[in-house]
Write a structure and sequence with these properties.
single chain; mainly beta; twelve-stranded mixed beta sheet; five-stranded mixed beta sheet; 4 helices; globular; Rv2993c-like_N; Fumarylacetoacetase-like_C; Fumarylacetoacetase_C_sf; metal-binding
Length: 257
């Protein structure tokens, strides 16, 4: 199932996307999408008649740094023995086609295309062998980073924490084996990243086990799994598109504040 959050003529709702292209339909879900069988209201619209929002509003976004060996190497870093965690505020989250806003006075701002895990139930200390049961599905993410601040601050909270610095979308795919998916990032149509999730140093079940050993994960929380090599700067007026096999494409324009 493809789960989305939409703005429709009557308000905002979770929905399931059925079909593709011009025939795609949006079926409204009552309340929330968590649980095995979401309840539907009976309302539906053509996908073209609604606006896709960020597919989830997490209580927290937990990101994993240097989780692709070649990306660590392109910045002269070693791969950490344990997953390197940092947090992005929930206010960084925006949906498809919402501008990434480059703050005033900030130098280089980079895109980072990533696979995002969306948690489906409250979990704490879940073992890797049972991690799949805790996952609602997967979506596409862009871990936007103010690179100069990341270097100067040492800690990454400011560099990764500006509003709009975590686009998510276009929806959550709940029926997907994410172990080996193609991930490609383009800036103005030029290919910049071309990786596969099979190259993750710390794999998805391991990440869920490790993160839930640190903090309780709540329904809707998001884990960003890391980015492949090829990250780079984005400028005012450009457009970033990140495509993950089996999910779809997340596109956001870039805008100076």
């Amino acid at each position: 199932m493809r789960l989305a959050r939409i703005a429709h003529p009557g308000g905002v709702a979770f929905a399931s996307i059925e079909g593709d292209g011009d025939d795609a339909q949006v079926l409204e879900i009552a309340e929330h999408p968590f649980g095995k069988n979401p309840n539907f209201t009976g309302k539906r619209w053509p996908l073209a008649d609604v606006r896709l929002l960020a597919p989830i509003l997490p209580s927290k976004v937990i990101a994993v740094g240097r989780n692709y060996a070649k990306h660590a190497a392109e910045f002269g870093n070693e791969v950490p023995t344990d997953p390197m965690l940092f947090l992005k505020p929930s206010t960084t989250v925006v949906g498809p086609n919402v501008p990434i806003r480059r703050p005033r006075g900030v130098g280089r701002v980079d895109f980072e295309g990533e696979l995002a895990i969306v948690i489906g139930q409250p979990v704490k200390n879940v073992p890797a062998a049972r991690a799949a049961a805790a996952i609602l599905g997967y979506t596409v993410a862009n871990d936007v980073s103010a690179r100069d601040l990341q270097k100067s601050d040492g800690q990454w909270g400011r560099a990764k924490g500006f509003d709009t610095f975590c686009p998510l979308g276009p929806w959550i795919e709940t029926s997907l084996d994410a172990a080996d998916l193609a991930l490609k990032s383009e800036v103005d149509g030029v290919l910049k990243q071309d990786g596969r999730t099979s190259d993750l140093v710390h794999k998805i079940p391991e990440l869920v086990e490790f993160v839930s050993g640190v903090m309780t994960l709540l329904p809707g929380d998001v884990i960003l799994t890391g980015t492949p090599e090829g990250v780079g700067p984005i400028e005012d007026g450009q457009s970033v598109s990140i495509t993950i096999e089996g999910i779809g494409t997340l596109t956001n324009p870039v805008q100076d504040v």
